[in-house]
Amino acid sequence: MAFTRRKEHLCRTPPCVPTVDPFACRYISFVSVMLRANRFVLLLALVGLLASGCRTYGGYDTKPKTYQAMQRSVEAFADELDRAEADFRTLADAAEASDTLQALAEDYQALLDEHEALLETQRGRVERLSASSAYRSLQRGYGATVKEKNIMMKKYRHLVRSVHATVQGTQVGPTAPDAERRYTIRPVNFPSLRDEERLSMEQALGDR
């Protein structure tokens, strides 16, 4: 009977339940949710990075094409220097008989000096880079080369218009501000959006 009473007493004893802090439970749940959210955000960022890389870097032959385009642009810039030197000789001959053209001839000589310095910079850029250089470096180099050429040609055109205005006895307006202040990434073989009709030095001088 004593054994039976003891057994009944044990059965009436409530089981031992460990005490859990409600705040700790909420904190653990919050941390678990944040970890899952962070993994999801990280996955989205990784997918976006891969997609962006595919759009930016293109095919395997993009870098060689960009480098070749930069080389061609430098060669064209050298050809432009030869033409500019020929125009300068024409202007200098006309300036010998006209005092009003002498100052413009000096300005043209300054442009030639600037052109030569830029050409040396571009040739050094071509030597420093190669078809296996980093894609972004090639794009920046090509963009800088095209930008420098466009700015230089714009200065020549403005001076030739000044020569024409001087010969005609009129005034030439100021050069339009350059809309692109920084070097921009330019697709290979992408045509210029601002191809102006070029006035030759002979046309500017007329019968001089």
Pick out the low-confidence regions: 179-183, 189-196
Main β-sheet, in a few words?
none
> Which overall shape is indicated by the principal axes computed on the Cα atoms?
elongated
Total discrete domains: 2
| DSSP helical segment count | 6
The N- and C-terminal alpha carbons lie at a distance of 140 Å
Task: Briefly note the structural class of the backbone.
Answer: mainly alpha
What is the structure about, briefly put?
The chain crosses the membrane at residues 40-60. The chain has helices spanning 2-12, 22-57, 62-95, 99-128, 135-168, 201-205. It is mainly alpha-helical and 208 residues long.
Question: How would you characterize the overall build of this protein?
Answer:
Helices cover 72% and strands 0% of the residues. With 208 residues, it is mostly helical. The chain has two domains: 24-56; 61-205, no CATH class. The N and C termini lie far apart (140 Å). The model is unreliable at 179-183 and 189-196 (pLDDT under 50). Residues 67-132 form a coiled coil. The chain crosses the membrane at residues 40-60. Keywords: Coiled coil, Membrane, Transmembrane, Transmembrane helix.
